[in-house]
Amino acid sequence: MPQGALTIRCRMWKTNEEANTDGQCIARTRIGVERRAFLWKTEHFTFFHVGGEETYRLKSTIDDSRIMSLKLFLRKNHRSDAILIKFTCFDVSIVFSTFKSSLVDAKGDYVDCGQHELWFSPTLQSTECMLSLSKDTLMGNKNLYLPFDSLTLYCEQIFSTGSVFEDIECTAYGCSNSFITNNVVPAHIKTANIKISETSYLKMDLGSMLQNNILCDVKLCVESETFSAHWLILSARSLVFRTMFQSDMKEKAQDRIDIEDLKPDTVRRMLLYMYTDSLEELEWKTASDLYYAAEKYQIMTLKDKCSSFLKSNLTLTNACEILLLSDLLQDKELKSTVQNFIMKNDKSVINSSSWKLLMKDNLPLAAETMLLRFKE
Fold first, then answer.
1. What is the pTM of this model?
2. Which class does domain 35-165 fall in?
3. Residues 6+ apart with CB under 8 A from 8
4. Which of 8, 52, 128, 358 has the largest count of CB atoms under 10 Å?
5. CA–CA separation, 66 and 63 (whole Å)
6. Do domains 35-165 and 201-374 have the same CATH topology?
7. What is the mean pLDDT of residues 176-201?
């Protein structure tokens, strides 16, 4: 299968009689595939016994839907405790998946734990696999295999999500044998196309390039994590990145950008949005962090979405923090919305510990907000 493509050629004919006309039809089907790579850490592994379990949940990078849960557990064998993983699939379109795991030891080296093929059906949505290393083996060389008493697995999972593209590319009648053999479509022959779904294949493909590190040419380094990306995409989505890449900055020469004031999860979410225009399930805290990142890198559509989310999710406990953020980033509209919320709930907010912290951190802002009561 060159480049992962399976090409099938079929010939159909009538028996006992001749066909009225010769014809040719060329069709194409594209199978959707998601590839996931992740680190799965189980802490305090010494105290992990039969009956306990550790869960990891896989979500789609395209629409954040729940795909599969993985549960790590132990099973008593004759002489040792075997390490198993139970896979429960929530997407009925997934029939087949491959799973490969490696233990990351204290030196940072990968120790192969096996590769498995997983099959699912509407009547069989759960299956198990056993790792090649047992708990006894790991405990026998704990300093190497379990640094800081943590089991760290590097996992790679590939699964099909069904057909994402089906098209009749060409239908032609009255063809000669040479035409069928050479696969040449004359200009005068009309083709019939089936309308495909309106799913954004561009977003899916860009998300796949980000997820699978395809042809990446720049790295974003945040704390201990590194994210691979593409200059072209970052430049198209962010004026700050565009200016950075067009200049002779030191970061460009190294194909590396060090980010010191953002968290790894925030950068991951920011990149996902830049490539797919999608936001994972937000909470007000993650939205606040993304809002700050969007302002820093001038990703205006992301900033607007985060601002709208914060306005819609104001509470008595987060109002003061969002007020501080809006004042810091000079977002007058968001700031006004938060101040109006505080005025409507003045007694509850002013008597809270969050308000006391606001007065300690930014007394002028607290005073400005309080003065609004007397302007009504």
1. 0.47
2. mainly beta
3. none
4. 358
5. 9
6. no
7. 43
